[in-house]
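#dry-run=false #mode=assembly
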Amino acid sequence: MNILRRNVLKGAGAAGAVSVAVAAGLLKPTAAFADWNKAGFDSKDLAGAMGSIGAGSAAASGDIKVDAPDIAENGAVVPVVVTSGIAGTESIAIIGEKNALPLIADFKLMNGAMGYVSTRIKMGSTSNVIAVVKAGGKVYKAHKEVKVTIGGCGG
Amino acid sequence: MAEPMKVRASVSGDAVEVKCLMNHPMETGLRKDAKTGAVVPAHHITNVTATLNGKPVLDAQWGGGISKNPYLAFKVKGGKAGDKVNVSWVDNKGDKNSADVTVG
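#status=ok
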């Protein structure tokens, strides 16, 4: 996160300066907070979401474990645990294959953080939960199918 | 200001496991209000960062696909009891929250 940018935002009367910067095209509106992959999170198809995180040609790997229920009664809350056994795991992304907005989260791990992330996601319909792992400049993926009885995305 | 969040950090084996519960509506921007039919604007956490003894260990970007009142757990190798953990988030409206805990 850009510390200077934070301070600018905090400053009284800075709002005007920021909007001028936005108008001038110096800052993208989303970039005013922190790095956020807007193109990826706004992407409505799987290929766009995968491409935005550089996972277009990810290789399937048996060393990634995606733990999720076989059947989720409530698609609004689907617990997912991704464990990567790949040495030097740098990031784990979670993607809902058939969600209206497939890219759900992208976790960068550093300074001893292990290849393990546990969270809860929304799923619109029965589909695969895809985990994308980056390690040593290579990209891997694995998936697990979750049957959703009641969708949890919009409606 | 957002509701407080719960963070717990404990030693598990040779690693520290950090578990967080945040309070946030996590609106995707796609949901329609059941009564008015109007689209509820997006309001979700975009960035979550965590540090162990001041060193960054996790830097996450989130979309609206994370469930309401998000739960997050992660593990850091080499941590020990007494280490300081900080977890912070920012949402798409600029709201933010942060919590500090000591590994117990």
